[in-house]
Predict the structure.
Amino acid sequence: MSFQKILQPLIKDVEGAIGIIFVDRDGEAIDHYSKIPDDDIKLLGAYKSIIIKNIQETSDRLELGSIREIVIFLDEAVLILSPVAEGYFLLLFMQPQSNLGKGIMRLKDVIKKVREEL
């Protein structure tokens, strides 16, 4: 199943949005849409599993609950990781000067649509 029709509008509608990837718990790409090379966005998706695993293990140990969203600010990018369903995540890759609020709101819309397709 292709999720292109769901993922693509976010990248086109949010200024500074670079790519979005839908991945499973192991970081394997299910689908993506990106302005950067496929291998680069897939690499980001693959490494997200390490980040999520470490944060969730710490959260479990401290009894803080499940991950609702992870935002990572880098010098040259912003990464937003959001759970879609058990074992599935969306990763949005944006430029640092992007409208973060708009990116998060549109990401929530995409999550709803992806859930409907699962």
The mean pLDDT is 92. The first helix runs from residue 4 to 13. The chain has three helices and five strands.
